[in-house]
Task: inverse folding
């Protein structure tokens, strides 16, 4: 069996962010940030008859991930309490962008990625983050545009 070598850049993906007159940088999640985000989602996941029925901590996990990936102009992490003060539309866009640059939405050729969780028979697995998410954190259909306009 031949296995190709893996080569990674040692630089994380960074996205400049402006909120009002403040400058921030959204940085690709570390392994620790990704793990804490997935654990926060899993912790609040409720099952009925072996299938996911609700996720009580989805909004908490969003603020957590954003706070672990958003840095101010001095290079300091933005506290979760500050992130929670942002408008919902800002948080939603930051979270979606953070997941995208961090590879937390594993999508293979536009189709659902493989996962062992029962609810992956739907479009998106909220436990492991695989698949194509069709709703934002507020239950609205996600816009398919890539330009970031709302």
Result:
């Amino acid at each position: 069996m031949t296995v190709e070598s893996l080569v990674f850049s040692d630089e994380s993906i960074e996205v400049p962010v402006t909120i009002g007159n403040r400058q921030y940088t959204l940085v690709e999640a570390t392994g620790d940030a990704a793990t804490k985000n997935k654990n926060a989602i899993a912790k609040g996941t409720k099952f009925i008859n072996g299938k996911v029925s609700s996720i009580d901590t989805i909004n908490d996990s969003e603020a957590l991930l954003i706070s672990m990936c958003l840095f101010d102009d001095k290079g300091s992490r933005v506290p979760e309490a500050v992130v929670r003060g942002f408008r919902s539309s800002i948080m939603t866009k930051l979270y979606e962008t953070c997941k995208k640059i961090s590879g937390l939405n594993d999508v293979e050729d536009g189709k659902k990625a493989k996962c062992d969780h029962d609810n992956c028979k739907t479009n998106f697995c909220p436990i492991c983050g695989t698949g194509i998410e069709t709703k934002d954190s507020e239950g609205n259909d996600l816009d398919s545009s890539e330009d970031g306009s709302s």
